[in-house]
Specification:
Blueprint lengths: L1 H7 L15 H51 L3 H57 L2
Helix pairs in contact: 2-3
Length: about 140
């Protein structure tokens, strides 16, 4: 009975399932798909960086807003309230200007990284085309 079972079990040989040599257009399509995927991953990473930065900034600003409300609530004099309010808006304007600068820096860094990624993919594509023309 063991012999019957062994004959019934198919043994897969990896060499039997090797794909024939792929055409140049299929290889080029694979490279394009890999490059597109890499750029999409890079873009997603950049988007997450921006969202994290924005969330962090808003968290700080919301805490400052809460402190303003508490300070105004605890203030007895109108003059004190006015000074607190004016100081709050001065700090808020400064914070927003700094954050705009942060986003500009993040954007410049991401643009440089993207340009480097595109340059790398272009170099790889050129090398692949050169290798394909030399291969008989």
């Amino acid at each position: 009975m063991n012999a019957e079972i062994e004959e019934a079990i198919m043994i897969w040989n990896a060499e039997e399932f090797c794909a024939p040599e792929l055409s140049l257009s299929v290889k080029a399509g694979q490279k394009l798909l890999e490059a597109t995927t890499a750029l999409q991953m890079h873009s997603t990473k950049a988007l997450f960086r921006c969202q994290i930065e924005a969330a962090s900034f808003l968290r700080r600003r919301f805490w400052d807003d809460l402190k303003l409300i508490e300070t105004l609530r605890d203030s007895d004099e109108f003059a004190d309230s006015f000074d607190v309010f004016a100081n709050f808006w001065q700090n808020a304007a400064s914070d927003y200007l700094k954050e705009v600068g942060e986003f500009a820096c993040i954007g410049a860094k991401l643009a440089m990284e993207t340009a480097g990624q595109v340059r790398k993919e272009a170099d790889t594509a050129i090398d692949d085309m050169a290798a394909a023309t030399l291969t008989p």
